[in-house]
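thought: fold this chain, then report.
action: predict
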Amino acid sequence: MIWVHCGEADCVASTRSLVRRLVDRSDGMDVLVTAHPALLEQLDDVPPSVIKDMPPADSPTRARTFLDHRKPSTLLWNGGDLRPALLRAVAASDVPATFMNARVAGVIAGASRWIPGAAKAAVQAFDTILTADGATATRLRRGGVSADKVRATGPILEDATPLPHDANELTVMVEALGARPVWFAANIDAAEVTHMAAAHLAASRKSHRMMLLITPADIESGAKVAAILRETGLKTGIRSEGDDPTAEMQAYVADLPDELGLWYRTAPLTFVGGTLSGGDVTSPYDPIILGSAVVHGTRKAPHQTRFDRLASVEASREIRSASELGIAVGTLLSPEQTARMALAGWEEITRTAEITNDIIETALAHADGERSAP
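observation:
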């Protein structure tokens, strides 16, 4: 059995991705995922073969009972929620264990350079500790954790999976738009529609042939979105009403469901909706993996880490208002700029793929060794 523990909300997505890959590669081995009940609920879409359970109460007796029952061959601990008694039992049982996405918070109290005794014992139970940043790696080493165990890999997040699209529709849209400059406003909250219109009108002063593609967060509200855009003076088509982009159109409401993958492939620049209004925010990895650079507002939860990673390599641009968005679109919407940003983002989000592959291969090797043992 391969055991994966999800220790915090920020690690749900990467746990889900890791578990799916383990199931795909496990050749019939059992995969167990543990987490607090609220996090288990968020893992309801893992493959049905995955065993889900709460971790035991953190006492030596409960820990030994749990391990005797589950008999894990390896442990992948993702994020915080360190449990000293359980992890001491893991070490005593010689279960190979890897700590992913280790951060200072929860391990070292305040500004101290020392690790409290219980936490140190818990950390020492791991054979490998992959830290989310260099500062954590330094603090762990200074706190007495063997340097051989610690690697500063940066955050290990979920795999970026390209959203699907209709290849024929992509051909039609590329031909219809031709060489026009195009940007995409994705999953736009109702409160943001006027901001998108204002930004487009401002950016169009530099390029009057520019086209705005816009998908509302409420996919049923396409006609309302189009009415708002038309009130601002934009000639607007509506996809659900059978319109195709024409040379006269300035905006196109893409209000058919499940087509984000099509528009990310069509537009070299994407504004992530909800980041100005505080509405639902989708992962910025979705456009990046399909070659579209990212612009966003200041509201980034629950994908703060992902936005920060893109910003660190200049693969995204943060704006605070519609006027700033208009300037950003007008400035960034050139083939050289968007290609550079998208490439930088793609390289960043695939950077840890090799590390994740190594984690999976090692876990499978331990599990296969246990299965093959007499």
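thought: worth noting. The longest helix spans residues 353-372.
final: tokens above.
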